[in-house]
Structures are given as structure tokens and as C-alpha cells.
Amino acid sequence: MITPAGEVVAAGHNMRVQSGDPTAHGEMSCFRAAGRRRDWHTLTLATTLSPCAMCSGATVLHRIPGW
Ligand SMILES: [Zn+2]
Q: Which of 7, 31, 39, 60 could pair covalently with 3 via S-S, beta carbons 3.0-4.6 A apart?
């Protein structure tokens, strides 16, 4: 997650195997690392692969722009 000023406020990576959690995709790990925030609508979520339906939905629900 990156602010408009270019500051990285959270990062994550796929932890499905390590955690045994089938929802621990890289995007979800990043959301968890970002914690509770009020500025979701100003952040940029960068990923190395196209987000799946679950991660796309979480991005829409957090009102991250670009969707
Ligand atoms: Zn996903």
C-alpha cells in the first residue's frame, strides 16, 4: 500500500502454505498489515499478479481507487 506521497505503509506476500490459511493471498496479507485506517481511498495497492475475485472484492470494499 502506497500513499500519494510515495510512502509504503504496508506490504504483504502470499502466506497460504505457511499459515494454512486459504485466504492469505498477498493482497490480503497487505490489508492485514495496513491495520485500521481511514485513508484507504487515497492509497494505491500494487500487486505482481492480477488479483483474484476475493482480493478484488476486498479492494473495492476498501474503496481503493482504480476499480
Ligand atoms: Zn487473491
A: 7
Q: From the candidates 12, 27, 43, 58, which is the catalytic residue?
A: 27
Tell me the residue range of the domain where 56 lies. Answer: 1-67
24 falls in which pLDDT band (50, 70, 90)?
very high
CATH of the domain at 8: 3.40.140.10
Which has the closest alpha carbon to 23: 61, 57, 66? 57
pTM of the model: 0.89
Give 42 Cα–ligand 1 centroid separation in angstroms.
Answer: 21
Q: How close is the Cα of 10 to the center of ligand 1, in Å? A: 16
Residue-wise pLDDT tens digits, 8-17: 999 999 999 9
Q: Is 27 part of the annotated catalytic residue set?
A: yes
Q: How many separate domains does the chain show?
A: 1
Contact 52, 46 (CB under 8 A): no
